[in-house]
Amino acid sequence: MNLDFLPEALFVSSAWSGCCLPRFGGGSRLRRKFGGVGGAGDFENLFRFYGTLAATSPTRRLHELPARSTPSRESGIMARKRQTKEDLRREVEELQARLAALESEAEEIRRLANFPRSNPNPVLEVDAEGQVLYANPAAVEAAEKLGLDRGVGGLVPPDLKERRAAGRAGGERHAVVDLTLGDAVFAVTVFFPPDQPTARLYAMDITARQQAKAALRESREDLNRAQAVAHTGSWRMNVQKNELTWSEENHRVFGIPPGSPLTYETFLSTVHPEDRDYVDQKWRGALKGEPYDIEHRIIADGQVKWVRERAELEFDQEGRLRGGFGTAQDITQRKRAEEELQRALEEAELRRQESEALLLAARAVMTHKTFADAAWEIFQGCQKTVEAPAGYVSLLNDTGDYNELVFLESGGLPCTVDPDLPMPIRGLRAEAYETGRVIYDNHFGGSDYVKLLPPGHVQLENVLFAPLKVEGQVVGLLGLSNKPGGFTDRDAHLAGGFADLAAVALVNRRTEEALRKAHAELEQQVQERTLELRLANEQLEREIDERRQAEAALDRERRRFLDVLEQMPAYVILLAPDYTVPFANREFIRRFGEAEPGQTCFEFLFGRTDPCPDCQTFRVLAEDRPQEWEWLGPDGRTYAIYDYPFTDVDGSPLILELGVDITDRKRAEEALREQEALLSLILETLPVGVWVTDKAGTIVTSNPAARQIWGGAHYVGLEKYGDYQGWWPDTGERIEAGDWALARAVTRGETSLGEVIDIQGFDGSRKTIINSAAPLLGDQGEILGAIVVNQDVTAMRKAEKTLREQARQLEAFFAHSLTPIVFLDPQFNFMRVNLAYARACERHPVEFQGRNHFELYPHAENEAIFRQVVRDKRPYVAEAKPFEFPDHPEWGVTYWDWTLTPVLNEAGEVDFLVFSLNDVTPRVRAEEARSRLIDILEATPDFVGTADPRGRVTFLNRTARRFLGLGEDEDVSRVRIRDVHPDWAANLVLQEGLRRAAREGFWRGETAMLSRDGREVPMSQVILAHADPAGQVKLFSTIARDISDLVQVQRALRESEGKLRYLSAQLMAAQETERKRLAAGLHDELGAGLLTIKLHLRALERELSPQQQALAESLEDLLAFIDGVLDNVRRLYFDLSPGNLEDLGLTGAVRQLIDQFAKYHPGIRWQVKLADLDRDFPLPAQTAIYRVVQELLNNIGKHARPSRVAIHARRRRGAASFTVEDDGRGFDVQKVLAARRGLGLAAMEERLRLLGGALEINSRENQGTRVAFTIPLAPGESR
């Protein structure tokens, strides 16, 4: 809260709810009557004055006013009387006007008297000692809330006396003080009335504002730190404001000091020359709307870097550029890593090729049968890997005197030497044989060895010999030659590996040859002995085989016969003429048991003493022919008996009896007869039609239902099936004779079930039937006929069609309904859930099958409700019922409208439950959020309002209503935007703010509003546009904040900065004066004194005799010490004095400074390029620049320990830039800047700031330091 007390009237800022004392010209008048306005006593006097005025009635009659004296003349002239009456009337009117004015003034004074007490902010009046004379209720409440030990006195700034004294000395009548009380911060405005010992204090809580400023400051610092960590800078461009803003990291990435002019040419100059055209082309494309996302090189701080740039440009509807935002990321490290990776990949590929060649060579060792073939393939792999076009493989001869070629590859060069000639072992070959190491010579073509080559030999530039070693002895060579660029140690290593593989191949082949020879000899011996044994064995085997075959044949026949008898499902016995049983098979014994030796059949089977009277078996012996008859055995089963005459091996007669159990067959025949009768009855009574055909396909029978379905019957064969008319319902095609299911069953044995067809009966009726047919098969699978079943489903098909349609509609509704639906059984187990329910629970529908609802979603209250619905059989409806999903706690509390409806069965019991839900969480939360938002809007101290697109106000919060003087319930629909702004601000809002907000969504700007007393209050205003889904703006909202305090703070800050700059400049000038004074003292007094001492000592030295040698040496040491002190004096003189700036100028003085520094640091290499800047700066500015360079050199000498220092100064684009760079130890810039100590950084920054310049430091530990600073040139100073 700010208060400005003007000499003639009291002005109160808009934060005081629009109250003010009008300037009725009575300010000075009131002071004359009451001795000033403002203190608590003043307000009381004003109130008393108002009381005296109120005592005088505003309706006093004319005769109550004091009469004015009339002239003493007693003239009776009527004209004079009329004149007197007229004068009196005017006097009365004037008095009445004055009375009305006093009434108005009294009303205003009465309001003013109540002002401090009703003010929501603390108001105090204190005496000269700071003791509180008056405090309004807001001050008392603030002191109690803060718990101040001194009560309201804690709101008084502790330095109030000093401020009063300073204000009187400087003519200032008010001051603004930030007072921190615990966690709260108050802006206290202090007013010192002239000629009064009191002071008035007006405090305003600005804690939230300070915290917001701190948060904004911290956010900006975090952004800068985040960009520095990510090596990503950013920039923003505003074409309308002609602004281009770079982040600090963007300046660092491109090596452009902050404060430098930011133009497209500045940016393009940092781009690597080879990439400049490409970048320029992509940027021009971006200006046409093309994407801008590129990687390119730049040159920053003398180093080549890689950056990735991205930009999003904004255009208006006409395609004109409005602005944009972009980022630049330093990807140098990534590019270097990619290059390292590429080199590693190339090396890996080389190793892979080598490994592959060695693997192929090893495979050749294992696969080739001859050494020559293996050696050739190994040589080719080596030749390809080493990239030598010519070479050979040779072996020692048997005597070891010379080499014999296995093969020779000349590499396309002519060679006329006979390859069969022996190769003598000499020169490098001899060295390879002797040492067993790989030998190569890249200068062979110029050596004496060339003279040893025979005529016609291939011309050799370089050679390599790799020995083939077997058991430590060199047995041959692998030679290579004429490799472009010469051989390397790696080539020698690879060639040695291939030579070792060739040696392995040689050993393998020699070993294989020896083994092959020994194997051949052994094979010959084995074959001869084997032949002898085979001949003898074959004869013996033939004899044994013949005997074994005869015995086997006999045994097989016997076994076959017995097996047949034993495995027969019927019983077989041999009966003798005396009724005994010499043989019985296993089946007989299983059925009847085993007879004792000599026991007769009738005795054994029936316990009889004489033959059975009905037995026909022994008729075989009498008639000598087979007999067939049926016999009822003792087990009660019926047997078919087949008796045959049989002769035993000794010639005695026997009877062979075969008995087959036919009991089941007899029973089956009887059952079949019964079933045939039953089947005939069933066919007659079946509700479905049945047709039967013979094996030829002729229809032989049908039942009444079949004839009813078809309206008759035609008993025809396959060729006449066309008499029956039918159609396939899916296609409407006629069923041909051979396509009927009956025809397919008869002809192909095909079974057809449930074929639906449309038919027309012989009576003309149209029906739909289900037609099924199956073949009747015999025991061997042969087709004996076919059966067809027809079912009339005409009515059922119509009903099914209707049900299917209804089911399809219901299923579609259930599956695709947006409403979650669940079917539960009476125990609340899930029967079905639709997709909407599964999605609402974030589960798959199959996860619910067989699960209980309250197992997944336990809820005691809901379970009780469900059980009540099952018990009462009445639906239950819930609205906005809260529920928390146990498997999704992150959803928090959700809200649902749901209905649980029981579905009853025929018995009136609950068959199942239908559970339908609707998620109303967004609605409930929106209502809660809306309520909270309205509370926030009503409580916020900012001006908040909404208006329709035509500018009519639709909502104002409590602050806005108070500001405009509107009541809480007063209608705001009559208020227009123009009503709340002065004309210039209204035009800005209507013509720019609303239009831009409609286009871009929001607008921000500084405007002004009119308070209820007509004052123009500066505001920071934001306008938001709210559009419907179609993009049509339906509403505008605005938030405005009073920035009166901010405007005054900014003004005060600018004034403070100006004073600070002036004081800093004065301080720097005083420092330079003191430095010059000290330098003069050192030069004129100390220097001159030391020089005088030195001259006296020299004179004394010359007077010494030769015998005073020790004293002479002491004098020499003393003179040397004085010389050192003089050097230090000169160095201090140059450090303190800004060189000969007035004589040499800035450039010459800096060069002299560098020369002086170089004398004390002889191990440094210097690179100095200085432009002529003498006429570009006045002498004070030159002195400041000189001091900065001097400080940088001092830092280099103290800390850097460099081997190279580069100093450049140049003039370009209206500024002078300086760089000082060394390759010394470097340092951590962030640590030094955070500590704000050492290196003279504060002094350098202050000197440059006074010149409008900026300092940039780039350094890393053990990587040197680069310091750059830029100083703008005044327009008249730039050449």
Task: Explain what the structure shows.
The chain has nine domains: 1-118, no CATH class; 120-205, 2-Layer Sandwich (Beta-Lactamase), CATH 3.30.450.20; 220-330, 2-Layer Sandwich (Beta-Lactamase); 364-517, GAF domain (Beta-Lactamase, 2-Layer Sandwich); 568-666, Beta-Lactamase, CATH 3.30.450.20; 686-799, Beta-Lactamase (2-Layer Sandwich); 817-924, PAS domain (Beta-Lactamase, 2-Layer Sandwich), CATH 3.30.450.20; 940-1042, 2-Layer Sandwich (Beta-Lactamase); and more. The chain is built from 34 helices and 44 strands. Mean pLDDT is 81; it is low at 1-75. With 1279 residues, the chain is α+β, with helices and mostly antiparallel strands. Helix 11 packs across helix 14, helix 12 packs across helix 14 (489-567) and helix 29 packs antiparallel against helix 30. Strand 19 (571-575) and strand 20 (583-584) form a beta hairpin. The protein has a six-stranded antiparallel β-sheet with strand order 15-14-13-18-17-16, with helices on both faces. A six-stranded antiparallel β-sheet has the order 25-24-29-28-27-26. It has a five-stranded antiparallel β-sheet with strand order 4-3-7-6-5, with helices on both faces.
